[in-house]
């Protein structure tokens, strides 16, 4: 009797653990492009605020620089000279499963409060904040300039 009770308890435990595993896996797989991109943007901006150049550059695609070393050097200089203190993501609008447009603002030492719209793209390594054409939002006229 003791063996059968132990066997039933073990089977129940395996069933519960399997259900939890597949439930979590399914919810991760069904995350929307908006949520995935926003999560990456938060990771990116947190790294920028914390002056973590290596972490920040993992989540950015910046065509202004020819390679990762040049990008990392520019980020290091930027974060030393004009540190970002805070940020806010206003919206993430899905274009398709691998492209979104993000509206965000940040506060930095030199530039103060700035608001931008930029793209994000999902590649083989995941979502990236794209810096190629950045649109500055003029809040005084409530339109883009």
From TrEMBL:
It comes from the Bacteria. InterPro entries: NTF2-like_dom_sf (IPR032710). This is Lumazine-binding protein. It comes from Tumebacillus permanentifrigoris.
């Amino acid at each position: 009797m003791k063996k059968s009770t132990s066997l039933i308890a073990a089977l129940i435990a395996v069933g519960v653990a399997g259900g939890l595993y597949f439930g979590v896996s399914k919810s991760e797989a069904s995350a929307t492009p908006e949520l995935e991109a926003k999560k990456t943007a938060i990771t990116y901006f947190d790294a920028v605020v914390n002056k973590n150049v290596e972490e920040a550059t993992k989540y950015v695609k910046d065509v202004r620089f020819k390679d990762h070393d040049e990008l990392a050097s520019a980020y290091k200089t930027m974060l030393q000279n004009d540190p970002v203190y805070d940020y806010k993501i206003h919206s993430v609008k899905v274009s398709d499963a691998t492209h979104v447009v993000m509206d965000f603002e940040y506060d930095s030492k030199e530039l103060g409060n700035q608001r931008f719209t930029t793209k994000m793209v999902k590649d083989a390594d995941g979502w990236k904040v794209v810096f190629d054409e950045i649109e500055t939002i003029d809040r005084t006229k409530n339109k883009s300039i």
